[in-house]
Design brief:
The chain is of the alpha/beta class. Helix content is 39%, strand content 15%. The chain folds into 2 domains: 12-136 and 289-309, Rossmann fold (3-Layer(aba) Sandwich), CATH 3.40.50; 138-285, 3-Layer(aba) Sandwich (Rossmann fold), CATH 3.40.50.1370. The protein contains 11 helices and 9 strands. The chain starts with 16 loop residues before the first helix and ends with a helix.
Length: 310
């Protein structure tokens, strides 16, 4: 069987196109499994996974836990708010204490960019990045690209628009890297204050008018405004942002073609997208949620394969 070229999943930038395709093919098999009456397989029966979430999460955490249960892994759940981190314990000490319990894999979300990379250099367990600050969120990008592949048959050649708070979004960066590797064209759209300087160097187009951007794209991935990561005001008000960059059905009806609507969640209904659009037939938001479980099953299975063979 083919194997990943990496022992940790720290970011999309570390993966080759072959790695991404292998993850997709493995996810195809797992998606078939989770849609059958008996949804569990013994693939990770001898693997212990620690879920370390130093930052609030609902969808990603539940998705990982469900994926682990479907694979029959043993699970340790850790929340920083109820741990010795609040007493001043360092990240290394926290993780080493958990690893002394013979943990094989760590799924970690952390507010500091690069925390997973730092950890991978100090411990033996396989590290899977569930989001580190404004850096990367690799499994979200993989499930987004997988959902595009499922909708269109291939990602290559598709025009994908990412709208919203590009500056603070780890989802945007991981998506750009993943889509570029798979041969898609990428455009970002948002207020000038929320578009990073020199982002064109990542091989993306920039557009500030939403209607023009929508006319260009096949797929629109709508990001929420990351208010919790903004120290300054980047636009006058949410209402003004919504008027300029909120996706409405009226805007979609102006287009001369159907487009596919995506959102990584959580949705701020009425801000970046209206309920009418989010719940419409054009939306594949719930497909993204389902695909997230299959993609995370595939990633953990392939990383565990490398653990047992090293």
């Amino acid at each position: 069987m083919s194997k990943l070229s990496v022992n940790h999943l720290l970011g999309i930038k570390d993966l080759s196109e072959a790695d991404i395709q292998l993850i997709f093919e493995t996810a195809d098999n797992f998606k078939a499994i989770i849609n059958r009456p008996i949804k569990k397989v013994p693939s990770l029966r001898d693997i212990t996974v620690a879920n370390l979430f130093f930052e609030n999460s609902t969808r990603t955490r539940i998705s990982f836990e469900l994926a682990q249960k479907r694979l029959s892994a043993d699970i340790i759940n850790f929340s920083s708010s109820s741990s010795s981190v609040t007493k001043g314990e360092t990240l290394i000490d926290t993780v080493k204490n958990i690893l002394s319990m013979k943990v094989d894999m760590v799924v970690m979300r952390h507010p500091s960019p690069g925390a997973c990379v730092f950890l991978s250099k100090h411990i033996d367990a396989a590290i899977l990045n569930a989001g580190d600050g404004t850096h990367e969120h690799p499994t979200q990008a993989l499930l987004d690209a997988y959902s595009i592949r499922e909708t269109y048959g291939d990602v290559a050649g598709k025009k994908v628009l990412i709208v919203g708070d590009i500056l603070h979004s780890r989802v945007a960066l991981s998506n750009i890297l993943c889509l570029n590797k798979l041969g898609a064209e990428v455009m970002v759209c948002g207020p000038t204050t929320l578009i990073p300087k020199h982002i064109e160097q990542l091989g993306v187009k920039v557009e500030h008018q939403l209607e023009k951007a929508l006319q260009w794209c096949d797929v629109a991935n709508m990001l929420r405004i990351q208010m919790e990561r903004q120290d300054d005001k980047y636009f006058p008000s949410l209402r003004e942002y919504s008027l300029q960059y909120g996706l409405t059905m009226d805007l979609i009806k102006k287009l001369d073609k159907p487009i596919t609507i995506m959102h990584p969640g959580p949705i701020n209904r009425g801000v970046e997208i209206t309920s009418e659009v989010a719940d419409s037939d054009l939306s594949i938001i719930l497909d993204q949620v389902e695909n997230g479980v299959a993609i995370r099953m595939a990633c953990m299975f392939l990383l565990a394969n490398n653990i047992t063979k090293n």
